[in-house]
């Protein structure tokens, strides 16, 4: 009987260098910045044997969240148009918004929770979060859940 695989979500800072570089090499290949594994590992300073050892064990968070439901918690300034800009940003990358919950504003700030489906998204969740963080009036964005 085989062992059940367990998955962990960890911050990249605590990963060994070879595993981080494997992820970087995979990203270079995925973006088309290298056409061979040899070229990609050379760019990040990793041996091919280390790449092949770890390549099937590490993948970016957005790959794990692809086709999932992700919940974002946002803190927004209470000004007209900010939530609309957030929703338009999600729609522009083809995120499918499932639920929106906005609490009454307190001291000029409103807590908003948005659940969205990522199956058709043209951008990874990390990139979407960074884009939303740059919208004027958005104070914070966090991924707080994933199904």
TrEMBL record:
Residues 71-146 form the ACT domain. It comes from the Bacteria. Belongs to the UPF0735 family. This is UPF0735 ACT domain-containing protein SAMN02745885_02200.
């Amino acid at each position: 009987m085989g062992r059940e695989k367990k998955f962990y979500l960890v911050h990249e800072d605590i990963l060994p260098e070879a595993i981080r570089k494997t992820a970087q090499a995979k990203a270079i290949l995925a973006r088309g910045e290298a056409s061979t594994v040899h070229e990609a590992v050379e760019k990040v300073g990793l041996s091919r044997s280390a790449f092949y050892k770890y390549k099937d064990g590490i993948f970016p968070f957005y790959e794990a969240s692809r086709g999932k439901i992700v919940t974002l918690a946002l803190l927004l300034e209470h000004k007209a148009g900010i939530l609309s800009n957030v929703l338009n940003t999600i729609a522009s990358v083809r995120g499918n918004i499932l639920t929106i919950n906005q609490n009454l504003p307190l001291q000029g700030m409103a807590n908003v929770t948005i659940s969205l489906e990522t199956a058709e998204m043209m951008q990874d969740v990390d990139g979407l979060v960074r884009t939303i963080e740059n919208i004027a009036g958005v104070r914070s964005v966090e991924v707080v859940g994933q199904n």
